[in-house]
Amino acid sequence: xxxxxxxxxxxxxxxxxxxxxxxxxxxxxxxxxxxxxxxxxxxxxxxxxxxxxxxxxxxxxxxxxxxxxxxxxxxxxxxxxxxxxxxxxxxxxxxxxxxxxxxxxxxxxxxxxxxxxxxxxxxxxxxxxxxxxxxxxxxxxxxxxxxxxxxxxxxxxxxxxxxxxxxxxxxxxxxxxxxxxxxxxxxxxxxxxxxxxxxxxxxxxxxxxxxxxxxxxxxxxxxxxxxxxxxxxxxxxxxxxxxxxxxxxxxxxxxxxxxxxxxxxxxxxxxxxxxxxx
Length: 278
Ligand SMILES: NC(=O)c1ccc[n+]([C@@H]2O[C@H](COP(=O)([O-])OP(=O)(O)OC[C@H]3O[C@@H](n4cnc5c(N)ncnc54)[C@H](OP(=O)(O)O)[C@@H]3O)[C@@H](O)[C@H]2O)c1
Hints:
Blueprint: E1 11-14, H1 18-29, E2 38-41, H2 49-53, E3 57-59, H3 62-67, E4 71-74, H4 78-88, E5 98-101, H5 108-115, E6 121-125, E7 137-140, H6 148-158, E8 164-166, H7 172-180, H8 182-199, H9 204-225, H10 229-234, H11 242-252, H12 255-270
Parallel strand pairs: 1-2, 1-4, 2-3, 4-5, 5-6, 7-8
Antiparallel strand pairs: 6-7
Bound molecules: NADP nicotinamide-adenine-dinucleotide phosphate.
C-alpha cells in the first residue's frame, strides 16, 4: 500500500449512498485527498453524476474500484454486504488493501469470513456530518491489532472527517446508536425547538436558525469546557426563572426518558440487522 499521505494512495467507497458520499465529500473538503483519488460505486451510478463532474471516479464496477484502490470503505446496507464482499473477495490483496466497513450490525468475524480472513479489516462508525468534517468516527479492529501502516492509513482517512475514537467491537452498536443515529435524534430536537420558536413569535426560517445556532453553541460549550451538561445548565437557570420552569416541564413530559428509551430501541434494532446465513 502506498503511504496514506501520497497522491498515489487511492480510496474506494463501495456503496456511495448517504454515508458513502458524505465521507467522500468530507475527505476532499479536508484538503488531504483529491476527488480523483476516490472511486465511488453504486449499481446505478446516475445519482452520482454531480460527483463525477467534480472529478470523483464514479462507476458501478466494484471489482475495478477495488483493483485500483488501497483503502476500501464498504458502505452498503447490511442486507447487501454479503453479495458485495463475495463479488470483490477474489480481488483483495492482503499486502495492499485495508477494508473498513461502516455497515451497521455486521461483525468483524463475519466480515473476515466473507473476505477470506487475510485482508486487514476494521469497522468504522462515522456520521453524515463527515461531509463537513464534523463526524466522530468510532473504529474497532477486534482481536487483531493493526499493523502500523494500517493504523496510519485508518487515522489519516477518518481523521480527515472529524475526531476518531478507538473502541472495543462490542461497543460498536452503542457507537452506532449514539454517533450515527444520534445525528437524527439531535436534528429532531432542533426541529422541535424551532416549532416551539414559531409558536412564541418567529417565522420558521428565523426560528430554525436560532435553534440550530443555539444547539451548536451548547455542543461547543461542552466540547470546549469538557464540563458536564448540568454545570452549564446551572449557569442558565436563574432561580424562579423561565429556563428552569421550561426545563422542568420538559422533564415532566418525559424529555430525557424519551431520548434514553429511543436509544435503547435503536440499540435493540441494530442488533438484528444482519445474519450471515440470513
Ligand atoms: N446514513 C448514515 O448516516 C450512516 C451512518 C453510519 C453508518 N451507516 C451505515 O452505512 C450503510 C449505508 O447507509 P446509507 O444510509 O448510506 O444507505 P444508502 O443511502 O442506501 O446507501 C447504500 C448504497 O449502496 C449502494 N449499493 C447497494 N448494493 C451495492 C453493490 N452491490 N455495489 C455497489 N453499490 C451498492 C446503493 O446504490 P444502488 O442501489 O444504486 O446500488 C446505495 O447508494 C448502512 O449499513 C448504514 O447502517 C449509515
